[in-house]
Amino acid sequence: MAGLVVLAAGAAVACQPGGLGSATVAYTTDRTATAALERRHVDVSWLTCTGGRDDGGGKGGSPSPTETTVVSVDCRGETGDRRKIVVTGRVTKAVDGACVRGDLRAEVGGRQVFHVNGLGDCAAGPGPTYRPPTGQPRPTVTVTVTRTVWPVPGK
């Protein structure tokens, strides 16, 4: 089930052009928070994150080019021994799948595990994107159809 949530969040990342999208923040926080918790020897059974634009008290509308977009993130999950995991914060930067920057806190079983200004490696960036060289022929699609013919008795 958690894999489907991550897959859905990952698919939604591509739908939010430019800026800091709530789906990107949720997906990336899920990945980086899980890794950070596991580095601190927390057995994460599952973690699901949601994100929503934080407009600083209801300004409404889109931020101007000089304003910093902030996305509030809320993650809920459980450890292997059924302790509750809560990760919350305000994110000002996200690199798809690699890092989030902002103010993030994690609690496991009611005990604070971390309070950080960021998770992940922003210098690493997202994975490479394949772009075929220009001027080269593009691959074509080949379809193979196999038909099974059953003999008709008496013919």
Describe this structure in words.
The protein is built from two helices and five strands, in the order ααβββββ. It is of the alpha+beta class and 155 residues long. The protein has one domain (2-120). A five-stranded antiparallel sheet has the order 1-2-3-4-5. Strand 3 and strand 4 (99-108) form a beta hairpin.
Elements, N to C (H/E): HHEEEEE
Report low-confidence residues grouped into runs of 5 or more. Answer: 1-18
Strand order of the largest sheet: 1-2-3-4-5
Give the overall silhouette. Answer: elongated
- How much helix is in the residues? 10-25%
- Given helix and strand content, the structural type is alpha+beta
The count of helical stretches stands at: 2
DSSP, total strands: 5
**Estimated radius of gyration:** 22 Å
Q: Which terms would index this structure?
A:
single chain; 19% helix; Lipoprotein; 5 strands; disordered N terminus
Briefly characterize the structure:
This protein is of the alpha+beta class and 155 residues long.
